[in-house]
Amino acid sequence: xxxxxxxxxxxxxxxxxxxxxxxxxxxxxxxxxxxxxxxxxxxxxxxxxxxxxxxxxxxxxxxxxxxxxxxxxxxxxxxxxxxxxxxxxxxxxxxxxxxxxxxxxx
Length: 106
Hints:
The structure is a single chain. Helix content is 45%, strand content 16%. It has 3 helices and 4 strands. It has helices spanning 26-38, 51-59, 80-105, and strands at residues 17-21, 43-46, 67-70, 73-76. Strands 2-1-3-4 form a 4-stranded mixed sheet, with helices on both faces.
């Protein structure tokens, strides 16, 4: 499932954000709501359905949801501080990409 910012999973975005979550998980829902509000595209993977993802996370030592992977950063749980940093990075990359597109078009 891709969030509403990128329903087809096609948006060009330098940093891939993946939220590994479980159903009825308040911290997962809070994380996804904040990403949606901030306009940060992400891919959601339900680890109760994707057994490969679940096994990979367990093998890496993760025991709580959500697990958020964003570029070289990985964390578990609802972390508003890290989500804000992620949004700032997304805004900077979006701004740089729009300037590059304008330069190419000129």
